[in-house]
Amino acid sequence: MPPAPLVDPASIDDSKVLLDLEQIRQVNPQRFEMEQLTAIVSIDEANKIIVGYKDVMPDEFWVRGHMPGYPLLPGVLMCEAAAQLASCYCVGTHLIKEGFVGFGGMEDVRFRGQVRPGDRLLLIGKGVRLHRRQTIFEVQGFVDGNMVFHGRMIGVNLSPLEPSN
């Protein structure tokens, strides 16, 4: 039995973008194939909730090989998208003043549905432990109102790296 939705997906207006891809790049360091968010549509600091989405495109790097003829967004990329969502919350709300949130782990993750090219993966995260050194978010993903995954993402604060030569 899946958990209750953190937020009713039907109540989310994903047409009102709060942060677009360029603005997400200002808070998250991932680039190119590893950018797993398209937009953030809501940040509710009082309830520690962030909502965003990933538009799953037919030309993404994994489509050709996972699975040929029946491409499915790999679960690990759903988790990465959720971790990037949590990082956006922490940096965007200034919980993290320097650096960014790195993926520290995941717990109790379950996959309940398929995500395919052309889908919009709606992501909802709720901070359950917010500390500058470690964060824990309950996360859920939905496609067309149906929960396709849920779990707990653990994040750790990482300092920015010096540029390499």
How would you characterize the overall build of this protein?
The chain has 165 residues and is mainly beta. It has a single domain, classed as Thiol Ester Dehydrase, Chain A (Roll). 14% of the residues lie in helices and 36% in strands. It has two helices and six strands. The chain has a six-stranded antiparallel beta sheet, covered by helices on one side. A hairpin with a 2-residue loop joins strand 5 and strand 6. The protein starts with 20 loop residues before the first helix and ends in a 7-residue tail after the last strand. The relative contact order is 0.21. The model has no long low-confidence stretch (mean pLDDT 94).
Q: What's the end-to-end separation, in Å?
A: 51 Å
What would you report as the Rg, rounded to the nearest angstrom? 15 Å
Q: In terms of structural class, how would the helical and strand content be classed?
A: mainly beta
Overall mean pLDDT:
94
Helix residue percentage: 10-25%
Number of folding domains? 1
- The CATH topology name reads Thiol Ester Dehydrase, Chain A
CATH C-level class: Alpha Beta
Q: Assign the CATH superfamily.
A: Hotdog Thioesterase
User: Can you list the strand order of the major beta sheet?
Assistant: 1-2-4-5-6-3
- Gross morphology: globular
CATH structural architecture: Roll
Approximately what portion of the residues adopt beta-strand conformation? 35-45%
Poorly predicted regions are none
Strand tally: 6
Count of individual helical segments: 2
Topology order in helix (H) and strand (E) letters: HEEHEEEE
Biggest β-sheet: count, sense, barrel?
6 strands, antiparallel
